[in-house]
Amino acid sequence: MPEITLYTVPNCADCQAIKRLLTRQGAAFTEKNVRGDPQALAEMQARAQVRIAPVTVIGEQAFYGPFDDQRPRILAALRGETAA
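That's the Glutaredoxin sequence above. Prediction below.
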């Protein structure tokens, strides 16, 4: 299983939904709260070229946007598929 990092902010429904999805899939992940952590924010921006959470990084693939947009890409990546 590739390394998974989830960049979040507090009180974010999409962030919570992604955490639930990863947990249900049995995927171990590291959560990094980008609010108040400049290093995590800079890392997220470097990996995904976006400034807004949630961002999910699975291996070398970075996904961003609302949960509904990320969900199919996350599931494909967890199956070992490269998302388009």
